[in-house]
Automatic annotation (TrEMBL):
Belongs to the V-ATPase G subunit family. Residues 11-50 form a coiled coil. The keyword Ubl conjugation does not apply. Keywords: Coiled coil, Hydrogen ion transport, Ion transport, Transport. GO terms for cellular component: vacuolar proton-transporting V-type ATPase, V1 domain. Signal peptide: none annotated. GO terms for molecular function: ATP hydrolysis activity; proton-transporting ATPase activity, rotational mechanism. Subunit of the V1 complex of vacuolar(H+)-ATPase (V-ATPase), a multisubunit enzyme composed of a peripheral complex (V1) that hydrolyzes ATP and a membrane integral complex (V0) that translocates protons. V-ATPase is responsible for acidifying and maintaining the pH of intracellular compartments and in some cell types, is targeted to the plasma membrane, where it is responsible for acidifying the extracellular environment. V-ATPase is a heteromultimeric enzyme made up of two complexes: the ATP-hydrolytic V1 complex and the proton translocation V0 complex. InterPro entries: V-ATPase_G (IPR005124). The keyword Zinc-finger does not apply. This is V-type proton ATPase subunit G.
Length: 119
């Protein structure tokens, strides 16, 4: 009987030891997951900062181009507006005269599709 009691005691001690190992494994796994999560978060933040810096440098390098292009477009627009204004001033009297002639000097005539009805 003493042998059985001793075997049972040994089994209980082995079971407690196994539970301790399982608990340690769970704690280790939990800690590794937390570490992996914090590492991933740090990598994401680093990557985000790097891409933000790349974007800012790209934006800074192309901002000057945008301003110079805008200035060129503004000059071209002003030149075209001056040409249009000059053409307007030059041709406005002739256009008004043509419009008035069309409205005032009407020559009545029959429409070409009108057929004479015979009664």
């Amino acid at each position: 009987m003493a042998g059985q009691s001793q075997n049972i005691q040994t089994l209980l001690e082995a079971e407690k030891e196994a539970q301790k190992l399982v608990q340690q494994s769970r704690q280790y796994r939990t800690q590794r997951l937390k570490d992996a999560h914090s590492e991933a978060t740090k990598e994401i933040e680093d990557y985000k900062a790097q891409k933000e810096q790349e974007f800012k440098s790209y934006e800074a390098s192309h901002t000057g181009n945008t301003q110079s292009v805008q200035a060129t477009v503004d000059k071209e627009t002003d030149a075209k507006l001056r040409v249009i204004s000059q053409q307007y001033e030059k041709n406005k009297d002739a256009v008004v005269k043509k419009l008035l002639d069309r409205v005032i000097l009407v020559q009545p005539e029959l429409h070409r599709n009108l057929e004479k009805l015979e009664e």
